[in-house]
Amino acid sequence: MSKKVFITATGTDIGKTFISALIVKKLRENDVDAGYYKPALSGALLDKGKLIPGDVDYVCSISGLDNKYEELVSYVFETAVSPHLAAKINNVQIDKENILDHYLKLKDKFEFLVVEGCGGIICPLNMDNELIMLTDIIKMMNINIVIVASSGLGTINTTVLTIEYARSLNIGISGIILNNYEEDNFLHQDNKEKIEKLTGIKVISCVKKDSLDLEIDIEELKSIFV
Asked: In this structure, what DSSP letter does residue 47 have?
């Protein structure tokens, strides 16, 4: 039976794609059949009339995945705004069933599947005829989340709020990853300690800026997938 995890974050540009790439890379380097999926992507690059989904391209290049882009993402938009607005600008209807179908096909294809969200955990995909939030997608997939958080000032607030919101919706949490972590920074050290104390959720890895590897035991990494 395949296993999966959903990578979300405390906000936009916290490092979901970077961490997703390191997770897939770590698994594949340890002979684990790992794949990647992103339901919706905004801010794609237009190259010779073709949209290049940068996040998917980055994860593939770092992890060694050789799938075609369209196999790993359901909705791609050029405009770098929230998916609900990007879809409206492009007169596209984001459909939950299409996302679920795409997700299930990849879940059957790979032994371990990393699903990356868009923005923070509170991210609308549709706000017109049907309200679709990112959390609806998470619950539809019946998947646990890992929260990527900043290591710096303010992260206690945003991380605790993200966790409490997820808990209010009965979304399972497999762990926290602190990004741009500095081992000798007393603030970063304290943030890690206080986040764990306030939430009861383990920080499973602290990732240095531009790291090429995820510092976590492979068995512990595999255990976050359910």
From this structure: E
pLDDT, position 1:
62
Q: Is 210 helix (H, G, I), strand (E, B) or coil?
A: coil
- The pTM for the full model equals 0.96
The alpha carbon of 139 is separated from its chain's Cα centroid by a whole number of angstroms, namely 14
Kindly give, in sequence order, each residue whose CB lies less than 8 Å from that of residue 18, ignoring residues fewer than 6 positions away: 58, 179, 207
pLDDT bracket for residue 49 (50, 70, 90) = confident
Q: Any bridge partners for residue 4, and if so which?
A: 113
Nearest to 207 by CA among 215, 198, 196, 199: 215
Contact 2, 114 (CB under 8 A): no
pLDDT value at position 70?
85
Q: What is the pLDDT of residues 196-215, one digit of tens each?
A: 999 999 999 999 999 999 99
Out of 3, 4, 38, 192, which one is annotated catalytic? 38
Active site residue 105: no
SS3 182: coil
Residue 83 phi, psi dihedral angles, 5° rounding: -55, -35
State which amino acid sits at residue 138: I
